[in-house]
Write a structure and sequence with these properties.
Number of strands: 7
Distance between the termini: 15 Å
Strand content: 5-15%
Order of helices and strands: HEHHHEEEEHEHHE
Shape: globular
Strand order of the largest sheet: 5-4-3-2-6-1-7
Length: about 300
């Protein structure tokens, strides 16, 4: 399944429900869209990787729908542009990850535009990578609230300088934890109206920085699953990536716990995906290819 089909599926779900403008007291469903950066298909225990444990992501797959034929672009900006619009990247002016090739054409309607027009509160937290300055900035593409960074990657993941709606601010703690915390704050504040949250986590993209508690789980851990050509695999990089993914999983759990505490879980659609293949040679179900490749892996 490609992103345009995903977009159509979401809109069909909304069309079958009640919009915020309808007279019916039934509320339109909330939407939380989580996208990770450089996480491979094999980087979850649900897909058979016993090098790590991802119970919260696995639970999403077990309780919901899991797409078995779902394709993204080889690198992040085109994937993200397609996700935001439901249109193929070449039609959007997005052909690269830098030098202007990452900017989403003006005039394109985004998911945030659609949801905001339907009465939703909209927010984006984390990596953007579809244009840094207005009118390409998230706040100009339908998002009421933005906290994170607009470039393709960030140099420090521990209390880095970020931006909040155009103002430079300092982050608080480990970046994925901070972004998830911001999302939970927004959800809590908007719990009485429909909301669309785009949580774009920056991991397991390099630099391979992860809190000590997660790294210690993997520092000496034997890797039971290896890349199909183990001579290509950097095992230290693999361990760091898997440690980052377990942190991602914990943050997915934080989102789910917040929804349950607010009694929103029955009226919230939660989607989870990655923007491209893994950023190193590591176990990926025997598939060929990695980030930057058009092979299925």
């Amino acid at each position: 399944m490609h992103f345009p089909v995903l977009l159509i599926s979401i809109l069909l779900i909304l069309g079958c429900g009640r919009t915020a403008e309808n007279s019916s007291p039934e509320r339109a469903p909330n939407i939380i869209l989580i996208i990770t950066d450089d996480q491979g298909w094999g980087d979850v225990s649900h897909h058979g990787n016993n090098n790590l444990h991802t119970p919260h992501i696995d639970q999403l797959a077990a309780e919901g729908a899991s797409f078995t034929n779902f394709f993204v672009q080889p690198v992040c900006s085109p994937s993200r542009a397609e996700l935001l619009t439901g249109r193929y990247a070449r039609r959007l002016g997005v052909y690269s990850t830098s030098a202007g090739g990452e900017r989403l054409n003006l005039g394109e309607q985004t998911l945030a535009d659609v949801f905001r027009q339907a009465g939703y509160a909209t927010a984006a937290y984390g990596k953007w990578h579809n244009g840094s300055q207005p009118p390409y900035h998230p706040n100009a593409r339908g998002f009421d609230d933005f906290y994170g960074f607009t470039s393709g990657h960030w140099g420090s993941y521990f209390s880095p300088m970020l931006e909040h709606n155009g103002e430079v601010v300092r982050g608080e703690g480990y970046l994925p934890d901070d972004l998830t915390g911001r999302a939970i704050q927004f959800i809590t504040a908007r719990k009485d109206q429909p909301f669309f949250v785009f949580l774009s986590l920056n991991t397991p993209h390099s630099p391979m920085q992860v809190p000590d508690a997660y790294w210690e789980r993997f520092r000496e851990k034997p890797l039971l699953k290896r890349h199909r050509d183990s001579t290509l695999e950097d095992t230290a990089f693999t361990r760091a990536a898997l440690a980052m993914v377990e942190n991602i999983d914990d943050n997915v759990g934080r989102i789910r716990n917040a929804l349950e505490a607010l009694r929103l879980q029955e009226n919230t659609i939660l989607l989870f995906l990655s923007d491209n293949g893994p950023n190193s040679y590591r176990w990926n179900g025997g598939m060929r290819g990695r980030k930057g490749s058009t092979d299925e892996g």
